[in-house]
Amino acid sequence: MQRITSRKTTRLLTAAAAAVVVAVGAAAPAAAAQARPGDRPAAETVSLRAQNVTTWINGNVRIGPSTGYRIAYTVAPNQSLSAECWLVGGFVNANGIYHDKWVLLSDGNYIWGGLLKGNEVGDVSQPCWT
To answer: What would the mean pLDDT of 50-74 be, rounded to a whole number?
Structure first.
């Protein structure tokens, strides 16, 4: 048996295994399982401990981790939100900040980390892929 030492390879293999499980265990018709533009992406996590994050500026919360997804709602400065984990999504360049880190909120929506106080993921410690 070959040992896998790369985290990237492990993540890719884990994602592939998850896709096989979903494909084998799916009860919905194949047409319903196809993603359409603007659809909410499938959650990448099962159970995580929520953390509070706080916005430093007003901004948009989206249904997916990029500006290509529709806006779910808008947040005000100093608004507290419950977050599950962070992930890499679409790049955003705003307010002198440029990066691709997004935070999955407990309500299933996503906020770009550049809108949050703390580091680029609002000090959320848990990545979504573990």
So the answer is: 97
